[in-house]
């Protein structure tokens, strides 16, 4: 009588069924992330779901399938203007400091299984999207065509490729999309990592979330810390993989780069003047080349501090080269904005000095020489902790953090969409801006 | 040989152990919310954990144990100034439209088991806190002392209680706290729901997240949509619990309240003039009293539309009374900011008309009379969906949503803290503000 034995008390089968049931139930709650407590904030009206974990709580992003000329087409134009595509390198994005656009594009093109750690999930149906990503390679487009008239390879391509036309055509294309028109662009994401990228059309796309390097060429109504995301440059010199320590770092302060720049970068020449005669300081004028990258790598890996003065705009790739070199950045750039500053306390990994103080003869070297070895080691340890945020190739590095930052903007995006749609005519005395204003006093140095 | 039988293949015990193991493992992942995928964004430097669910991902809030006079003491002073505490009502916060401060205080005082659905978890150790809540009853304090000189009960208490002194003493107390000094107040949360609450000290606490009704009495550098949270007033008339429908709603448009107000409220007299002679419109001058609340309840429960003109400031309790009455709000208040606008699309539950258009004779009634019954039903259905957001007593209502809104501010709070601490002296041409600027064109009406 098997039936009877099945219901026999203490039968192991009952335990099996019981535990199997418990297991399935728990698995259900885990996988579908159903909260045990009632917290159904998600039922109505295009709700924001950023507060939740798991797929169902992730921000959903739709990547536009742009006409090919805006993505791979730019890569091809770039190669063509430089003597054609080498065999085996078709569609290969050229390495450069503004290549975040490539990393984000490639990331969203990965299969979803590989994107488990990301804060955004790609959806193929725009109806289901919270945000829309426009993957135009705007930074590469800016330099696709060598602009130097004397460039031996530039002649033909000047005719073929115009970045300004590309920008214009991109916006024309967008303005025909229903999802662009629907919310005035508030829910669109653009990458323009080169400070000049998209310069011609930025006023028409400014409602979107802009992924930028700094605000040097952008006005206050075009971009801000509140609406946009500051990206790190892709570092161009090799990561330092050795141990923390000062034994092999005999140079106190290192800088290599262009001495003469415009605007904020004028400080460079002044810094050269006060630094170039100091022993244990290495400052060198140099332009971009494979050889100078090698030399910079050597310099940054064997120095305790690395100088980061402003360039034409407040930011530059050098800062991120220093970070991955565990060379403590000395930032002399009063208006710099820094990537991911909600999760990174830069005072722990860098030294800030205001420009006016930094150019006082003798001040900077004296300040740095006084830093005790223990303190240097602490800086290096902190640098090592945050290094992954500056590595676009790390599976849990820059790319994931950029998407997390983007996903945090969603509540404000939804707010602005809803609010804009119901605003009535008003007699406004000034622009309608919501601001976050910071403490205006500043310090001479964080050291 | 029991041992042998234990390892016998196909023994049910093996299944029991296997499933029990799986169950425990899954339970572990569920309870401790350990992600299956690697997404450890939380390991360094005071990271923000809002993107995660579960206790470990919730924003941690510390509620100051303020001197008693700032909480229950205010309630007692209020009662004393009105003839003393009635028996059995000791410590009972008096019902009023600004009683959000009481609901938040009470909520954080609940045991953590009852707060499972909340976006914030209360911590008793300030070292573990992301945010600090200052539970001063600032709105009740403002009215604790009847200010009318002729008030028969006011005489004695004028001497006893001074709201201005209380505000001053609160800030003095705060300024001695290490957690206040540590981050310049950026991570502190204040409630000042009455537009005049904290008016004397708001400049000294403006870095904090302010929980307010509107920005009518606050300057752009004191408060904004980006930094602060707009709260709904606590509704003062009863919720309508009947079905959606227009059969029992014969009045087209209802308004009851003070006809004459200052500033933005001047529109009221003009609206009275264009509306008071319309049949099927009921506009009545009336001040706060139990009787007029009863009358307003009747009116709002039997009207299709409820007028919401600006008062002295852009917001008023009446809007929220209308919402819980399923009476479609007609908002004539050009500068109003609305609670929780990231999750609520107010065009679905209310009609917006700009002031200039609304006071044109005949315009408003004509507009509303043209709305078809189906459309009215749709508005009512949407109102019912969002009603809980305006109910402070709903276990998943206003209180939970306020904390969710507060928790969303944390990334910007952390950003401002880190950024402020490293800013060097700059030659700023204007205040250092990050802004979100909205489309400045507006429409005449959303209908």
UniProtKB/TrEMBL annotation, chains A, B:
A GO cellular-component term linked to this record: Golgi membrane
Major localization listed first in the record, in broad terms: Golgi
TM regions (residue ranges): 12-32
InterPro entries: Exostosin, Exostosin_GT47
Span of domain Exostosin GT47: 58-361
Molecular function GO labels: glycosyltransferase activity
Chain segments annotated as coiled-coil in the UniProt record: none
Keyword Transmembrane: yes
Topology class, membrane: Single-pass type II membrane protein
Domain of life: Eukaryota
Keywords noted in UniProt: Glycosyltransferase, Golgi apparatus, Membrane, Signal-anchor, Transferase, Transmembrane, Transmembrane helix
Compartmental location: Golgi apparatus membrane
Pfam families associated with the record: Exostosin_GT47 (PF03016)
Keyword match Electron transport: no
Family affiliation: Belongs to the glycosyltransferase 47 family.
Name by which UniProt lists this protein: Glycosyltransferase
């Amino acid at each position: 009588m098997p039936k009877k034995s099945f219901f026999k008390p203490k039968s192991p089968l009952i335990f099996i069924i019981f535990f199997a049931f418990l297991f399935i139930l728990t698995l259900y709650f885990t996988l579908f992330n159903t909260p045990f407590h009632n917290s159904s904030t998600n039922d109505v009206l295009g709700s924001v779901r950023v507060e939740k974990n798991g797929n169902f709580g992730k921000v959903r992003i739709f990547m536009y399938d742009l006409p090919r000329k805006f993505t791979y087409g730019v890569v091809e134009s770039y190669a063509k203007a430089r003597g054609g595509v080498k065999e085996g390198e078709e569609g290969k994005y050229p390495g450069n400091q503004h290549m975040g656009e490539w990393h984000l594009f490639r990331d969203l093109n990965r299969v979803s299984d590989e994107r488990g750690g990301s804060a955004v999930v790609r959806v193929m149906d725009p109806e289901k999207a919270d945000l829309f990503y426009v993957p135009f390679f705007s930074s590469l487009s800016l330099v696709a065509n060598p602009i130097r008239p004397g460039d031996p390879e530039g002649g033909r391509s000047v005719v073929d490729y115009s970045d300004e036309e590309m920008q214009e055509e991109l916006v024309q294309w967008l303005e025909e999309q229903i999802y662009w028109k629907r919310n005035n662009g508030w829910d669109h994401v653009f990458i323009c990592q080169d400070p000049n990228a998209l310069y011609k059309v930025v006023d028409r796309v400014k409602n979107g979330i802009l992924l930028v390097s700094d605000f040097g060429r952008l006005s206050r109504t075009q971009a801000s810390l509140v609406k946009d995301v500051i990206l790190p440059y892709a570092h161009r010199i090799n990561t330092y993989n050795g141990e923390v320590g000062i034994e092999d770092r005999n140079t106190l302060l290192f800088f290599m780069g262009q001495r003469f720049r415009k605007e904020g970068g004028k400080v460079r020449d002044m810094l050269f003047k006060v630094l170039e005669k100091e022993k244990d300081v290495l400052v060198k004028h140099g332009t971009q080349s494979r050889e100078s990258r090698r030399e910079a790598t050597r310099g940054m890996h064997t120095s305790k501090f690395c100088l980061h003065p402003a360039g034409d705009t407040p930011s530059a790739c050098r800062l991120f080269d220093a970070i991955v070199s565990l060379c403590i950045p000395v930032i002399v750039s009063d208006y710099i904005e820094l990537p991911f500053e909600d999760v990174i306390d830069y005072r722990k990994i860098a030294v800030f000095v205001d420009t006016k103080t930094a150019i006082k003869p003798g001040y900077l070297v004296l300040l740095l020489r006084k830093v005790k070895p223990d303190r240097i080691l602490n800086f290096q340890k902190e640098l090592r902790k945050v290094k992954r945020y500056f590595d676009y190739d790390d599976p849990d590095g820059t790319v994931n953090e950029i998407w997390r930052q983007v996903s945090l903007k969603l509540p404000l995006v939804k707010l602005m969409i809803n609010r804009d749609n119901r605003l009535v005519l008003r007699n406004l005395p000034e622009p309608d801006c919501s601001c976050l204003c910071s403490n205006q006093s500043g310090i001479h140095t964080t050291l």
